[in-house]
Design brief:
Blueprint (H helix, E strand, L loop, with lengths): L5 H29 L1 H7 L4 H10 L3 E4 L2 E7 L5 E3 L2 E3 L6 E8 L5 E10 H13 L3 E6 L5 E2 L2 E10 L1 H14 L20 H8 L4 E3 L2 E7 L6 E2 L2 E2 L7 E8 L4 E10 L3 H10 L3 E6 L9 E10 L1 H12 L11 E2 L1
Parallel strand pairs: 12-18
Antiparallel strand pairs: 1-2, 2-5, 3-4, 3-8, 5-6, 6-9, 7-9, 10-11, 11-14, 12-13, 14-15, 15-17, 16-17
Helix pairs in contact: 1-2, 3-5, 4-5, 4-7, 6-8, 7-8
Length: 323
Amino acid sequence: MKWITRSNVKQEVCSMLGCMKKKMLFFCAGLCLTFPSVYAYAQDVPSDYQEVLKSLDRKGDYKAGVLKVNIPRNDLKITIQGVSTPTPFGFGGWIALTKGADGSDVMMGDLVLLQEEVNPVMSALLDNGVDITALHNHFFWDDPHVFYMHVHGHGKAADLARRVKPGLDLIGHVTPAAAVPASSGGTVLDTAKLAKIVGHDGEQSGAVYKITVGRDDLGMKEHGATINARMGLNTWAAFVGTQEDAAVAGDIAMLENEVTPVLKALRKNGLDVVAIHHHMTEDRPVVIFLHYWCRGPAEKLATAFKVALDELGKSAPSHGMGH
């Protein structure tokens, strides 16, 4: 017969605790083997990525070899057709970095911007060597109206953070420009002068004078058919108003390597970019289209368009046939 003593109880408790510790060790080891991704998530953020978060003063996370920096629009109260839509519904901007084979980083991102923020942010990014690869909307009937700007860059993590920061710092801090009423008088548009500045003649349609320039230099074909300016492969500028107070809107057809130079030309000359996207699929060479708008003296607008137009066709396209 075994007597129950204080010493026996102490030994039993210690034995039970030791057994529990061993089981916990085995359980944790099993988790590491079974769910390695859980523990990968818990790993420290690499030191260079910690510096990115610190430099940008933003929060983020590191998973699957990617640092994702959060740029949510918590400052906006957005509704869609009157329905309140919180930030996670589609208004969480971000940039992401991951390592390339040579140890440098690839950066991509999607920024959520108000209309008045788009062009100031774009200029800040372009001036610091960040590429803009798309600009579009994700919703109809959103209030306030927001746009999505996709960004891209290569380099060391710290350098990319330095380059993207001026653009990010503008988000939420751009004051909308006051609308200026159109002038009631002025000189009629001097279309001959506009054509001379641009270097191409246009056509008059009512109050609008439109100059269209084809991209025949691209030699695009589909099913053996030549895709020319009348098929939509063109660049154009439409003018309306007076010589002193005009508005211009248009579309520019660009090769991929022409996008950044054209954007820089437009922004440095005061034209606002309102969209960047594709008009076609499976086109060869790949052509990107951007839409722009501006208001000002007609000659100044024509000169700005000409500067952008001169960025086209500087390099030979890689010819191919779609479909």
